[in-house]
Write a structure and sequence with these properties.
With 157 residues, this protein is an all-alpha fold. 50% of the residues lie in helices and 0% in strands. The protein has eight helices and no strands.
């Protein structure tokens, strides 16, 4: 905004903010189809295994929210506790919540299957092209990098 950047990558919320404040100065380039993870859950593997039941509840709930959002992106606003963290956001943010989640769902940010192995394989490809992984990404094993058991269990329920 201060003339210091000609090109950058920003997340959806910041893209919306830029376009609202200075849409005449910026253009949004179309994004190619990307299955790579945008966000991922991280935890110590020993902790995950020691807290398996709690992790399963959390992953199942998160997967359920993703699936609900894909069906109806307005669920976040409708189901948000006005006294909770989202309810405390400024009015202008709350007013744009439905549009934000609609755009995010249409952009594929919330995979109704949690991303899983598809996202992991796409990450291999993405990071290989970026030079951050060496070797043939097709030879990498998802299980060597991610522990998908909680997601797999949630998918079966």
């Amino acid at each position: 905004m201060a003339g210091q950047t000609d090109l950058t990558i920003v997340d959806l919320a910041n893209k919306n903010k830029l376009m609202e404040q200075a849409g005449d100065k910026f253009n949004v380039l179309p994004m190619f189809e990307v299955d790579a993870s945008d966000e991922a859950l991280f935890a110590n593997l020993n902790w995950i295994k020691a807290n398996e039941k709690d992790v399963d509840i959390f992953v199942k709930a998160l997967l359920s929210v993703y699936r609900d959002m894909v069906k109806d992106p307005t669920i976040i606003r409708r189901e948000t506790n006005p006294d909770g963290p989202i309810g405390q956001l400024p009015k202008e943010v709350l007013d744009g919540l439905d549009g934000f989640y609609k755009d995010a769902v249409e952009g594929g940010l919330y995979d109704p299957d949690g991303g899983g192995k598809k996202a992991a394989l796409a990450d291999f490809d993405w990071y290989s092209r970026a030079g951050q992984l060496t070797g043939d990404p097709a030879k990498l094993k998802v299980e060597d990098f991610w522990y998908m058991v909680p997601l797999d269990r949630a998918m079966m329920k």
